[in-house]
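Why do we care about 3D structure at all? Because function follows from shape, and shape follows, mostly, from sequence. That is the central idea of this module. The next example makes it concrete: a single protein chain, its amino acid sequence, and then its structure expressed as tokens.
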Amino acid sequence: MDIGTSADTPELQTLGHDTVCVLALDAAHCIEHVNPEFEEACGYRRGELLGQPLEALRHPDMPGEVLRDIWATLDAGATWVAPVKWLRGDGRALWTRTSFAPMSRRLSVFHSMVVSTHVPPLQARAAEAMYRAMQCCGLAWRARQSHRGGGLTTVTPTEQNSDTDRRSVRSTMAR
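And the structure:
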């Protein structure tokens, strides 16, 4: 598996272009399945991951509001796609382009699939800047998926208490 750094941003760690990491989550957002590529990319053994809440893999720089948006999107039966900053077992960050998709509703039990692939460094940097803005400036997260030209993900933070000021910060995540 190819996990590397970008020549122009050597501290940014991303998946290789051909690597696909897969997780399956149960109704409580705990890990039910992990493929070997995810184990290797994140530096955890399968036994360490199974049964753990996905929250345990969230990098501290990634605002909790992002996960709340993911869960709300899945609960609505929709797919959520954007760059994600995972916490590796060694404490370093791993950036991926991650899709969270609802899988089934059997007997009121909700499962979801998480698929992570390579994210271009420019997209990871834009998401990182947005995370910082959310944490320091009180911006709220809203992710939208557009299907122009094979898929464009736009992530838009907006001010939380913006009744009088409707300014927003936009960042196109895929070009």
